[in-house]
Write a structure and sequence with these properties.
two-stranded antiparallel ribbon; mainly alpha; 4 strands; two-stranded parallel sheet; about 350 residues; globular; about 5% strand
């Protein structure tokens, strides 16, 4: 039976501090490479690019469509699951949806949710410092994928031990995923997506495997763009002093995760964007659908007035998405007395 969507508007800003770490600048840190990761990622990308070639030469349309559907499902497993639900607790879910999101997240295979959440909470608490696993102040390549090729900075390890992860460690659904990570994630991310095209519509093994690799690296790089491009390119209408920015291209690729300046200022908003239910935010629509049928509830939002006031106080004066026309950059400058 359908239920009305329940939302909670946060009237006062929560305390989610961004800590600046003062690290001695005696010299550049020498990176210690993880060669296993280098080889694995190289293979995934070469195989995926070959899969792209096969899409234009010999693959069946059913295989391509199937892989795109899996791309969408997997990406939402990251955005609605690992990110908005488990990392930020911006909404709550009933057990059937939690299990569904865990399976969707496993199709994406970006480590287990427990590891993903630990890294992401560090990222928000120590954003773009040495304790941030994918510190964007080290450049695009490092924040996009390079951080996975080297050993973690000592500050990441140190601060990671101080995080409160009790809600995640005590979650039986996430404990199951971690306990059976190799067989379960291996099956839903790589095994079944390869077997289904072969046995259901006669795709070749070569095509099925390499197009699975293509889908997989597309999921990886779409998510990685939030750490890299959305921390470098774009406007900062809510806090001009931080690196996260509003990036429309990233929002398209990740179904709503690219409104990143907003998200770092208001990380508890389940929409992760000031536009809320717009055409770029498929993740929000997904959550809203399950709120409508009663599987998601206590959706946290931010009041429109708080959004406007924060932008006026600390933003860069660029356009305020979704707000009145009177809130133009020129009017904001007048309000600020510039």
């Amino acid at each position: 039976m359908a239920q009305s969507v329940q939302t909670t508007t946060i009237l006062e800003q929560k305390e989610e501090k961004t800590v600046t770490l003062l690290v001695p600048q005696a010299g550049k840190r020498k990176f210690e490479f993880v060669y296993q990761n280098l080889i694995t990622f190289a293979y995934w990308h070469i195989a995926g690019l070959y899969g792209l070639y096969l899409c234009f030469t010999s693959a069946k349309w059913a295989t391509i469509v199937f892989s795109f559907i899996l791309f969408v499902i997997a990406e939402i497993g990251i955005t609605a699951g690992a990110h908005r639900l488990w990392s930020h607790k911006s909404y709550k879910v009933k057990l059937p949806l939690e299990i569904l999101l865990m399976v969707m997240n496993s199709i994406a295979f970006q480590n287990t949710v427990i590891d993903w959440v630990r890294d992401h909470r560090l990222h928000h608490k120590y954003s773009d410092t040495d304790a941030d696993p994918h510190n964007a102040s080290r450049g695009f390549f490092y924040s996009h994928i390079g951080w996975l090729f080297v050993r973690k900075h000592p500050e990441v390890k140190k601060r990671g031990k101080e995080l409160d992860m009790s809600d995640i460690y005590n979650n039986p659904v996430l404990r199951f995923q971690r306990k059976y990570a190799v067989p379960f994630i291996g099956a839903v991310c790589f095994g079944l997506p390869t077997l289904i095209p072969v046995y259901c519509w006669g795709e070749s093994w070569t095509n099925a495997w390499h197009i699975t690799m293509l889908r997989y690296i597309m999921n990886l790089n779409a998510t990685f763009l939030v750490n890299s491009a959305a921390h470098i390119y774009g406007k900062r209408p809510y806090d001009k002093k931080i690196l996260p920015a509003q990036n429309i291209g990233v929002s398209i690729a990740t179904f709503g995760e690219g409104f990143h300046n907003y998200h770092h200022v208001f990380p508890w908003d389940y929409r992760a964007a000031e536009l809320g239910n717009n055409s770029l935010n498929l993740t929000t629509k997904f959550i809203d659908f399950f709120a409508w049928i009663g599987w998601a509830y206590d959706l946290k939002t931010v009041s429109k007035e708080m959004i406007k006031q924060r932008s006026k106080r600390t933003g860069d004066g660029t356009n305020l998405w979704g707000l009145e026309d009177k809130d133009t950059p020129e009017n904001l400058k007048n309000i600020k007395g510039e």
